[in-house]
Amino acid sequence: MTLEELKRQAELSLSDLGVHDEAGVTAKFAEARETMGRERTSLVSRSTDLHFPRRVREFRNLILARGHGLVARIKENWLDATPKHLKPAAGRAFNSLRIIAEELLEEESILNIAKLGKTLELEERLDLTLPGNRRPLGSLHPVTQMQREIEEIFLNLGFRIESGPEIESVYYNFDALNIPESHPSRDDWDTLYIDSRTVLRTHTSPVQIRAMEKYGAPLYIIIPGKCYRHDNPDASHSPMFHQIEGLAIDCDITFADLKGTLDFFAKKLFGEKVRTRFQPSFFPFTEPSGEVAISCIFCGGEGCRVCKESGWIEVMGCGMVHPQVLRNGGIDPEKYTGWAFGLGIDRFAMMKYDINDIQLFFQSDVRFLQQF
Ligand SMILES: [Zn+2]
Q1: How far is the CA of 315 from the centre of ligand 1 (A)?
Q2: Reduced to 3 states, what is the DSSP secondary structure of residue 4?
Q3: Residue 312 CA, ligand 1 centroid: distance in Å
Q4: pLDDT digits (tens, 9 = 90+) for 227-237
Q5: Which of 167, 231, 316, 347 is the most exposed place for a label (fewest CB within 10 A)?
Q6: pTM here?
Q7: CB neighbours (10 Å) of residue 298?
Q8: Is 168 helix (H, G, I), strand (E, B) or coil?
Q9: Is residue 32 a contact partner of residue 7, using CB atoms and an 8 Å limit?
Q10: Listing from the earlier edge strand, what are the strands of the sheet with 167-169?
């Protein structure tokens, strides 16, 4: 009997199938067992087939499913519907059929492979001849890379990294740094106020005061971190940006130390050929104050689009720490002097990678970030 034949016959009663005695009952059930056994043998012979786990499940359904499985159909039509005088024979034959049917599916070879079914089934949808899926490895954000590079130079000079809160008090952000209330950067347009006494820090400089209070002098630190200003985003402005500043306080620190250190720093970062230029400037927390420019790293000082034909690029502010700032940090300006500088990490990264829009750093566009 073929499987199709068995399926068809399982829907008919034994009398419809012309079975009217015990011998006929035994023979019919034996045929059914044989057909199921053949089906299993053919199934197992294909156990290396990728579709095997699915076929095992189909086979199990075919034989044992409630209601529509072969065993259930045979019970209904060959046992329950059978005339009383054939019931004992049909009952015995059915019990043995059921046990055998279950055994067909309980053999370890089938079960173990069926358990693997879910795993194999995933594989069966894949073309195994294709190269594997490559999980992309992340990398450090270009701004972080730049920050680490700058940090590395100063760590090698004996500075250590210090950090502080991004939500800062007006005292640390302005007052202690000698920025009077009349200073333009206190204007609402530049500073993001949380309340009248709290701001999102507009620079990393508040950490200077915090570190002076915490460690006293001598002090050699760099302070990297996020800063916030009330700027509309455009190609060169972002309301959130990254600064790093350095602070050196010790006995007999002079402007020459500042110049030497920053010149060394610029050469380490941009190459030995880079020259530095210091021009007078003004910051409330340093006196004297200066702007540092480096010879254009794109044209070597000849003049180009980036340096606006000047041959120089302004890269940071610096100066000798104002005596009042030292005093505010609890350090005696009669005994100690110091210098400080501050620069925008984002701008340095833009310069290094020749990026003309700061917004690209913060848009999380993987196509952009993948290039670093
Ligand atoms: Zn240039």
Answers
A1: 13
A2: helix
A3: 7
A4: 999 988 898 89
A5: 167
A6: 0.64
A7: 14
A8: strand
A9: no
A10: 167-169, 198-200, 193-195
